[in-house]
Amino acid sequence: MELPEPCGPVSRQVAEALRTEDRDRCHVVLPDEPVLADRDVQLGLWMLYELSYRGFEDVDPMAEWDPAVVRIRRVLERRLEQELRQATRTRLAEAPEGDDVAEQILALVRREDGPKLASYLRREATLEEMRDYLRERSVQQLRESDPQSFLLPRLEGAAKVALAELQYDEYGAGRPERLHQTLYAEALAGAGLDDRYGAYVREISGTSLASVNVMSLFALNRRWLAAGLGHFAAFEASSAVPSRRVAAGIERLGLPAAVAAYFHEHVEADAVHEQVAARDVCGAYVAAHPDQRETVLFGATCHLHLEALSGAELLARWAPEQRAEVAS
Description:
Number of domains: 2
Structural class: mainly alpha
Strand content: under 5%
CATH class of the largest domain: Mainly Alpha
Helix content: 55-70%
Shape: globular
Distance between the termini: 36 Å
CATH topology of the largest domain: Heme Oxygenase, Chain A
Radius of gyration: 19 Å
Largest sheet: none
CATH architecture of the largest domain: Up-down Bundle
Number of helices: 15
C-alpha cells in the first residue's frame, strides 16, 4: 500500500513529513475547530499510526521512530485526547457506582439508546446503503484485533491470559481461513467492494477514521493501557446483537452468504467475548491496579461515544428524517 493522497492541509503536512528526508523542519498546524470528525486531521493521524502496522511502500520504515514524526504525532494526539475527555464526560459521570468494573462497563453499554443503526440496516437499508456501511467499517475491520495485540506484552497474570485467549479466537483459532480480518475481506468481495487493506481510507468519513485511530492511540501508548482494555471490552459487549441484525439485513437484500458470514461469526463469538473481556480482562486488571478503574471506564465510553457518532452520521446520510442527537 502506498501513502494515500492528502485531503487537506493537515494530511498534506503529514504526507510531506513522511516523504522528505529533512524532517526536522516539518510541522503541523491544527484547525481551531474540533478534530474528532475532521477527515483531514484523522487521515493525517491514521497515516502516522499506520507506520506501526503495515507501513507504506513509498515511506522509509525508519520514519516510524523519527523524532520529528513522533513530535507531529503527539501534536495530533494531544488534541484528540482533549476532545475525547470532553466528549465522554457525561457518560463517565453516569457510570454506576460499585466495585465490579465489569458490571460498570456492561451497564454503560446497556444504557446506550442512541441511533439504531443496526435496526435500520436490518429492516430498511438499500443495497447501496449496506455497501456504504461495509465500506465505512472496512479500514477498521481489515485490521481487526491488531491494535489489541499491542496490549498483550504490557499485561501480566490472569488479564494477559484472558486477552490472549480472546485474540486466539479473533485470529481464527489456528485456522487462517477463519481469521476475522479474512472473513471481512470476503464480505467486502461478496458485496462487490474492494477487499484490499486500506483501500477505502481516502473515502471513509472522519468519524470512521477516528474510531480506528482511537484504538491505535490506546494501543501504541503504554500509558493508555487501561483505556485500551476498557475500549476493547465495550467493543465486544456492544457487538453481538447489532451483528445479528446486520446479518439479517444482508440476507434480506439477497447478498451472497459470505457477506453475512462475518456477522454471524460475531453473534456467537462476541456473546462470549464480552464476558471474558469485561470480567476476566478488565476485572482482573482493575483488581491488580485499582487506581486504573476510571481510565478503563474512559476507554469504554470512548468506544460508545464514537459508535453513537458514527451511527448518527450514517443515518443522517441515508435517512435525514432519522437524524438523532448524540449525547455529549
